Amino acid sequence: MSRQFIAGSKEYNTREKHVGAPLLRKVFPYTQSGKPCKLEIGTTGFYRLFLNGKELTKGHMAPYISNPDHIVYFDEYDVTNDLQAENVVCVLLGNGFGNALDCEIWKFESASYRSAPKVSLTIYSGSDTIINSDDSFEVFESPITFDDIRFGEYFDARLLRHELLQAGSVSGGRKAVCVPAPKGEQKICAVQPLIRFEEIFPQSITETGGGYLYDFGQNNSGIYRLHITGRAGQVVKMTFGELLRDGKLYMDNLRFVAGYDIQHDEYTCADGEQTYVPSFTYHGYQYVFVEGIAREQATKELLTYIVVHSDIPPVGYFRCSNETVNRIEEITRRSDTANFHYFPTDCPHREKNGWTGDIALSAEQLSYHFDCAASLREWLCNLRKAQWENGELPGIVPTDTWGYDWGNGPAWDCALVEVPYQVYRFTGDVKIIEENADAIERYFVYAQTKLNADGLLAYGLGDWCEAENREVISTPLEVTDTLVMIDTAKKAASLLDAIGRRNASEKIARFADRLRTSFREKYVRKGEVICRTQTAQAKAISCNIFNEDEMPEAYSCLGELMRERNGRFKVGVIGAKVLFDSLTKAGMTEEAFSAVVGPVFPSYGYWLEHGATTLWESFNDADDKAAATIIDSHNHHFWGSVTAWFYRVLAGLDIQACDKVKICPHIISSLDWAEAEYRNNGRSIHVRWERRGENIFLQVANSGFAGEIYMDGYQTDKVKNISLENGENEYVFYET
């Protein structure tokens, strides 16, 4: 099928000159044939699709966010029952990623693919083409006078022309422009769309600073519904943020260039009652500062928060008797979804970028929480497209040229392995390994070219956002890079082995062994990593760097490092991924639990004490005036790996493979009960333990999983290792 692309014009939107979103329209006849009819539409940005006045668009900001030099996504619709004798198809085009503004921070404004949004639209029945996008489409100016995924959207209701969506002749159009197709591979988008979820209503409205501050009570991401009775020409200005200072909206933590308004929408009213929902942007926010309205218009009905994210249904949950832990689970899940717009982003406001390290850090917790395998698999397709021939990877995907010179390195690049590893672990999908195998092999060829004179690695980003002071990284880059690469290589070898690539698997496994030997020679002395940081020691334990006879000293050293901080953690996101598990291996689950929930800085409990409703980017002391001047995003997900520890350790539900689990709850004094559930591919398992007097009662409801039940430090009348059975069973354990 020939796919012709068209555009409203060749002129595109910039910061300096706003070019509105074009509406492309075509009237056409159709004689019913009784055969199925399909509509295919692909764009370099976003679209809204209307056929005979009915909107067909599958979700918000369709079809997908990608670099159009790499992939151009198409959506397919069955329109068999929507066609009639005379028809009109209309497409409203938004800039999306194909023409995104960023003040050149990530080089999107100088991207090679940048252009006015392009669209290809075909309606066909079998081999017969009914219409194809060409210059017979007419172009009309829409009410959207500016749109950008980060900066916002401007809408002038006076420009609305409802008759454009109906069949018939209308005036004021011009011919569409036929333009070259984008360079990227053209493919159907098969991942979950962005859809509207809950609606949130304002908890308070405060008149301040010449406007009105709306507080919705929780940080999240999405769009909004504006409902107003206005006068023609009245301009309502809305700025969206997540923080207040001195009672006013604080935007400096979003760190865009001065003079440009990020997350700022403007709505120009027509006369009378009207409702507006933005089409081509979304925001991360808790607060909205509204200007241009009268006091009587500042009602709770003026704005409604509409939460939007990918349609990734929940597959698991965790709960326990400690409400602080439950709230950490809640804010992690909210951060997961608030940052899942086709793929995990780092934050839903300032960047909206697919940072590789962030995705790698969160792949496990996301898999426990949501059915997101298809979306992660599609993002990996974009990651492979971004990989250079020499195997190098960027720090963000999608990207054009940014993220290769800075922003990557082993701890970020590991997403190429970590994401398939976790998806395969949770779903058993071998295709995700097969699709990425060549890229993985190529990456490890590249990684070996980066070895230094000591046979170790030290390039890219290290233990990012270290607790207490994110500007200081205590663990040497050579330590985190090498340890992450060892872990990544072992996982890569296991993946390649699973699909029969034995030679490649063995080569990468030998590379991991060489790195381990080199690391031990330089950094390991008597069971400890000589730089003596929590991250280094915990990561070394998790990577099996220590020999068996060194493990007592290794565990003892980790305990000392915790006691030196009075039981508090001092790690960045790399260390946080392994610290709590390593403490559990060392027999210090109680200490790990206290470090997580305690209200003393730094801890997750501290965040909650200071009003967190999502995970913050860093652990800066809000009570320290000097440290508090460093204010980062308050909606990141990469600290959420602790919730996977909740599942595996506190509830004892360890998903080892798509059909295999290990049940081994760690009973600690701080909890009276804990439970977790997980479902996939028709299987389900629910685990709950609780105290009853001196005994522990373990309930397991299983359908389709194999595995064993262990209870360290406890025994039952049955054999020590209990094989998992289908159905509902209860076991009584007592302390040995």
Poorly predicted tracts of residues: none
**Through-space gap between termini:** 71 Å
Number of strands: 39
Number of helices: 14
Give the fraction of residues assigned to helices. 25-40%
Would you tell me the structural class of the helices and strands?
Answer: alpha+beta
Whole-number average pLDDT? 95
Strand content: 25-35%
Radius of gyration: 27 Å
Tell the overall outline: globular
Largest sheet: number of strands, sense, barrel closure = 10 strands, mixed
What's the short version?
By secondary structure, this protein is α+β, with helices and mostly antiparallel strands. The strands form 8 sheets. Strands 11, 12, 16, 17, 18, 19, 22, 23, 24 and 25 form a 10-stranded mixed sheet that branches.
Report on this model:
The protein is an alpha+beta fold and 736 residues long. Helices cover 25% and strands 29% of the residues. The chain contains 14 helices and 39 strands. The strands form eight sheets. Strands 11, 12, 16, 17, 18, 19, 22, 23, 24 and 25 form a ten-stranded mixed beta sheet that branches. Strands 1, 3, 6, 8, 9, 14 and 15 form a seven-stranded mixed beta sheet that branches. A six-stranded antiparallel beta sheet has the order 5-4-7-2-10-13, with no helix packed on it. Helix 2 (356-369) packs parallel to helix 5 (415-427), helix 3 (373-386) packs antiparallel against helix 5 and helix 7 runs antiparallel to helix 8. It is globular, with a radius of gyration of 27 Å. The N and C termini lie far apart (71 Å). The model has no long low-confidence stretch (mean pLDDT 95).
